Amino acid sequence: MKPELISRLLERFPSLRDLKAEAEKARQEEERRHQEEVQKAQAEGKKPPARVESHVPVYPNPTFLVPREQLLEVCTFLRDDPEFRFDYLSFVTAVDRPPDSMEVVYHLYSMEHRHNLLLKVVVPREDPRIPSVVRIWDGANWHERETYDLLGVIFEGHPNLRRIMMTEDWIGHPLRKDYVYEDPAWLVELAKQRQQEIAATGEEPIGERA
User: From CA 16, how far away is CA 110, in angstroms rounded?
Assistant: First the structure.
């Protein structure tokens, strides 16, 4: 996406954070400090320090952190403005950041202008609620359901927010980092019934639920 469009977006929504620009600045600062250490070591006749692996994230596309309360306004603007025209939402997902937060991620693409960007919204992990964008992009429907199913994000205003991959009686959300599998009630009862049937034959109970 052209730099002038990024500037215009940040002027229109001052509360947005340009994560790609912040990361690039952080890497430049790391490089500056490293070069200073190298020059100091050379001046003292010492071996230059090894380069330390950077933990600054890399953003291949323009990426913006959006306040949750502004998500719908920002998305509507990005879809409708002629210079942006983000008419395609390619995916919605989330990243679990225990212990306190989760990041909901939106990847947008413009068929007309052939540019893309990412939006990130941080939500509290204990109450991960965020407005649904289905009314802006119909294609968000199943993506939001999958994110709800696997990570437990509640998309408020979604027309049919229910599980899409796991069974309706599944306990918990499998992609949360503290997820521990629990048998659904019907499986527990089935296992008990089976063990009782085996016990009635006089044989030794078998299996992990014995």
Answer: 20
pTM, entire model = 0.86
Residue 116 pairs in a beta bridge with 109
Cβ–Cβ under 8 Å, residues 93 and 46:
no
Give strand pairing partners of 97. Answer: 101
Q: Where are the domains of the chain?
A: 3-16+66-156, 22-57, 180-210
Classify residue 15 as exposed, middle or buried by CB count within 10 Å of its CB (0-12, 13-18, 19+).
Answer: exposed
Digit-coded pLDDT (tens) for 74-104: 999 999 999 999 999 999 999 999 999 999 9
Q: What single-letter DSSP state applies at residue 208?
A: T
Q: Which residue has the tokens 């990412």?
A: 118
pLDDT digits (tens, 9 = 90+) for 129-181: 999 999 999 999 999 999 999 999 999 999 999 999 999 989 999 999 999 99
Count CB-CB contacts under 10 A for residue 117: 22
CA distance 104 to 17: 15
Superfamily of domain 3-16+66-156: NADH:ubiquinone oxidoreductase Nqo5 subunit (3.30.460.80)
Interatomic CA distance for residues 98 and 32, integer angstroms:
32
